[in-house]
Amino acid sequence: MSLFRSLVRRYKEKYDLVGILFIGPPIIYLFLIIIYPLITIFPASFQEYVPSSQSFVFVGLKQFQRLFADKLFWLSIKTTFVFAGFTVILHLLLAWALALLLNTRWWPSWRVRNLFRAVLLFPWIFSPAACALLWGILYHPRGFLSYFSQQLLHTRIGFLSDPKVALWSVLLVNGWNWYPFYMIILLGGLQSIDRSLYESSEIDGANRFQSFFHITLPLMTPLMMMIVIIDFIGTFIVFDLVWIMTKGGPLRTTYLISFFLYEKGLMTYKLGYASAVSVFMALFLSAFVAVYLILYLRRSKV
Amino acid sequence: MRATKKVYRSFLVYGALGAVGFLFLFPGIYGVLVSFKLNREIFIWPPAILPRLWSLEGYVEILSQPKYIRYFFNAFLISTFTSFVCVILGSLGGYGISRFRIPAKGILMLGIIALMMFPGPILMIPYVRLSKALHLYDTYLALVMVNSGFSLPIAIWLLKTFFDSIPPAIEEAALIDGCTRLKALIYVIGPLARAGVIAIFAFAFLRTWNEFMFAMILTKGPERAPISVGLASFFTSYNVHWNAIMATTGLSIIPLMIIFIFLQRYIISGITGGAVK
Known about the structure:
Chain A is an all-alpha fold. Chain A is built from 13 helices and two strands, in the order ααββααααααααααα. In chain A, 75% of the residues lie in helices and 3% in strands.
């Protein structure tokens, strides 16, 4: 008991006791809702679920061996990489172009600029479900884009039914839905660059391209890398939009890793196997999170 | 001569801006127009942008079915409660980190940033199993808990940055007057960090309203499912007409549009004030 008291006293000298009462509830909440469920997938991945007795049997690393031999798993990984990689590129292209446009000095007035910013931000508020439907009617075999493709290319593209096209169709919708988020972050970064840097480079005779490549780009690189990581993680695990639009089809050309997880875990109840998929994803993505944290620490120190 | 050149130039600029804006908003604009079309003219060939005859057929079809009203009600309830949980717990956490000496504060802060990027879908199996074991499957509470859990890290972080910008001297005066820390937070600091609280409320509401995957796996029907699940069910159903689908999509955007129009400034501060800044 006296040991306890001396511990409390020593704690009080270094820290505030009341502080615990404030951060305690949110931390316990996060622990119960995110950390605890996360922990449970690890032991589950070493087990096999037996539906007949509703129990788990320890099987060691067997689930992982089966996972790495599963062709469907590798197919979904490949598709997910293509999807996430090109989505990040599309987001960056759109976000950069529009953030630079919003950041130019030739805007007639602030009001016009802010109105235009609001217009460009708008697609972000649509839910994945709403996006799927709005684009679903454009991609419809009797919709607008089919009509255009027939007029321009003399062939009707099956945007969601052609195995060669479906992934790119969905990718475009995802690009449209999320570019505003990254545009706003880049715009915030551009606005925080010291104007005097451009002025002095102008005096030195640098043109716009030179000042972009020698001032803007180097200063924005850390922010851009953080965006790439956030976007890659977010797109790697995407489920909603693609699920609603294609359910993985046609011919599994849009079959992402999250669908594999869903199918194994919640449709066929291979709980141990699906937990192994979750563990794989958690470990793979935690590497990205670690890089992000390092970048963050570096950035906040400067 | 110079004046006409200027007029000509600004005409060009506004024209270009209008065209870009129209292109980016086109799916939304077209959706609204389709919602006012008669069912028989939606898929005429070649497709037309404007309805020939403006009608409310789609809206009548949707609003006459109580199922869809229920989806909206559920989404509203879940999103509102989620926002409240995020504001309350976020304020406590943000204030705690901002004002007190806490063990392992650096690691705690890094942990919160890491949780902002947490890949939610990897928890789909534990969530379904836990919610069934705890009899929370197909309840509002389960969705409020999951959604607030995923928005809480951002709430804590954003409110911490807001509290950091408020000088501690302000609440010290209140503390000397005999105010407790909690009361100082609620009555003195909270109102000063109003912008942050509004941003979190709007942000959490928007995210929860739009969230689909957890809503799909943790509910089993229109009784408890929010509108995102209702919308998704359209995509493969062949007995609802496209004008009705677009009407529902449009209606589902209205609350977010209100938030967006009035609170745009706060939402932008919510995005940029996150971990990247």
